Amino acid sequence: MPRRLYSLILYLATPLILLRLFWRARKQAAYREHLGERFGFYPALAQALTQAKTPPGRKPLIWLHAVSVGETRAAEPLLHALSERWPDHQILITGMTPTGRETAHQLYGERVLQAYLPYDFPDAVARFFRHFQPRFGVLMETEIWPNLLAAAADRSIPIALANARLSERSARGYQRFSALSSPAFAQLSAVAAQTAADAERLRSLGAKAVTVCGNLKFDVRPQASLLTLGATWREERQKRPAWLAASTREGEEALLLDAWQKKPSAALLILVPRHPQRFSEIAQLLRARGLNWRARSAGLPTPETQVWLGDSMGEMAAYYTCADLAFIGGSLLPLGGQNLIEAAACACPVLLGPHTFNFLQASEDAIAAGCARRVQDADAVLQTVEELFADASTLTRMRERSLAFAAAHQGASERTLALLQEISAPAPDQARH
Asked: Catalytic annotation on 71?
């Protein structure tokens, strides 16, 4: 009954869902593309599946869902492991955003099929499973869709939740709707949790086969070409100190610039917003403040450049390599923080704001390892930046500890793959037939 009511609400909300899509398309036109896929219609992919046929039928398919950019990048080591373990299978990667889709294309090219996962309408998810017929599915992080999971269970398609994380805040939200969420969690065939605390919260919500496997993001290796690019940028700034405000969210840029303009610094600020649709907004903000700034798309910063706006996609590892240290966005305001692991893998020390509940364990571990520091507000960010620029030996130690921290937590992809091998194996009675 709760799931029927949930489905009815979804159907009634369809006009609002479409309105939201077209509203987002004002800033990002790609939201108007592939609309049919969002409702379970995939005519454009029919030919690709046909070409994947091998006698007596098409290749078996493994499905991996990564909602947007962060999850798509985190899935990279797991996807490579899946390709090596099942080389005769086609891999489908689904997402929900154009930027996630573009990221998947950059990372995997034509090696995988790509599509949007449909909204959680019963008929839409039924069409999805009829069209693709996956052998098993992998949902990245915390993608719990009641109708999707029920439809998979009805078709005996195992579904795993990989790199699973669940903050206390999110757990309380699911608990309020436990009559709907608990059956969905219980239908997961396996859960690869990031931490013991995540595992405990997931079990409390109804998940059964939960194993702590670690964070897949530690297994993501920065591309060598990006490390080289970042090193080139670093040489071009000719020993001028530079700090990076990485993956900043709405409202944070103004706070950081306010603090910076109170006490101007000779250091270069590299400012990279989290969402590409905000690039033009931040450019307007910099113009309005009368700052000497330059966009990455216009070239490298000059000695007079105060702020270098990172208006590019897929180059974060290069920005981390270029900078002496980084502030991780999403943590200055109560937004939960963004991923600090990529910074550590690039030997870039980090500063974290007070709000890191989305990456709590990784944040606390990084602070304990000596490669991160927590600050309470924008003024403290600028003060700590200046202190570390004046203390080269401490900054060097933090860089060394960053690499050690990243290396010490690798291995999640191997542990997750072991779980997927278990759920994908045929049952004993099926194997005999």
From this structure: yes
